Amino acid sequence: MTAIYELFNEMIRFTFMQRALAVGVLVSLCAALLGVNLVLKRYAMIGTGLSHVGFAAMAIAGVIDIAPLTMTMPVVVGTAFLLLRLNESNKINGDSAVALISTSGLAIGIIVLSLTTGITLHVCNIMFGSIFAMTQADMYVSIGLSIVVVGLFILFYKQLFAVTYDEDFARATGVKVEMYKSLLAVLTAVTMVLGMRMMGALLIASLTLFPALSAMRACKRFLSVVITAAIIGVVCFFIGMLISFGLDLPPGASVVSVNLVIFIIFSIAGLIRRGGVA
User: Fold this and answer.
1) The whole model's pTM is what?
2) Burial zone of 23 (CB within 10 Å; 0-12 exposed, 13-18 middle, 19+ buried)
3) Which pLDDT tens digit goes with each residue over 128-140?
4) Is 134 helix (H, G, I), strand (E, B) or coil?
5) Within 10 Å of residue 144's Cβ, how many Cβ atoms?
6) Confidence at residue 233, expressed as pLDDT on a 0 to 100 scale
7) First and final CA of the chain: distance in angstroms?
8) Alpha-carbon distance 61 to 129, whole Å?
């Protein structure tokens, strides 16, 4: 414990690590909260599609030299609405729509970067994340938007719960289903964009998936799953950052690896509790 405490004290001496921890904890919280709804609605892969579109938007923003958030946020939010509409149209099923947009986003981003800067360290930072990319202005914007996401989730918790479990019943009771599905899509898009600078386009979607799946192995009630997922998401991020700093590993990959370990532990514990393992 003493070694961990000393490592933490050494880590927070650096300004860039303070920014990364402040933003990362909030983004992990947002992703974990939304992840429960996304997994239960079978929208889990939407995060992957949005992050890949975000990769293309960030690549274009870098080429035309504008602030990444200025370009990425409206593009990813618009894509979230498009995916929602495609999923409801029945012309293209949900998985196919996500795969179509996801691969297209990656292809466009890679082509843009190949024609301009080539595959450089900048590209790796976009794809896999970099804590050094977080400026003070980014931190303030990210913290503000993360607080808005958490606040809206809490404010409309009951409506999002109703829409997640039974759309037809929610609609019959007067809940504006389409509006709250759109809200879930927008909040997910914002969270993906906020986390991309640190986790990278290829890894950010995991923050919505792993905590929710781990929590579902331990809890049955929706509220307890949401709370457990939030705790897991924040704790895994913090542990991942400690490992990243201590062993000089990529932060995004470290956080995802910790989430994977926790998921395996919770899965085994769930099997034991149900009598599936002797």
Assistant:
1) 0.86
2) buried
3) 667 666 778 878 8
4) coil
5) 11
6) 94
7) 33
8) 16
Compute how many other C-beta atoms are within 10 angstroms of the C-beta atom of residue 15. Answer: 11
- Poorest-confidence range of 12-21, 85-94, 231-240? 85-94
Q: Is the Cα torsion angle 162, 95, 74, 197 positive or negative in sign?
A: positive
Single-letter code of the amino acid located at 162: A
For residues 156 and 34, give the distance between their C-alpha atoms in angstroms, rounded to a whole number: 12
Q: Which of 170, 156, 222, 189 is nearest to 73 (CA)?
A: 189
Nearest CA-CA partner of 193 in 81, 56, 95 = 56
The answer for 92, left when phi > 0, alpha when psi is -120 to 50, beta otherwise, is: beta
The predicted-structure confidence for 157-179, as pLDDT tens digits, reads as follows 999 998 888 888 888 888 888 88
Joined together, the tokens standing for residue 252 give 């995004």
Residue of 80, 70, 120 whose CA lies nearest to 102: 80
Q: Compute the half-sphere exposure of residue 37: CA atoms within 13 Å on the CB side of its CA.
A: 26
Cα of 155 vs its chain's centroid, Å: 20
Amino acid in position 96: S
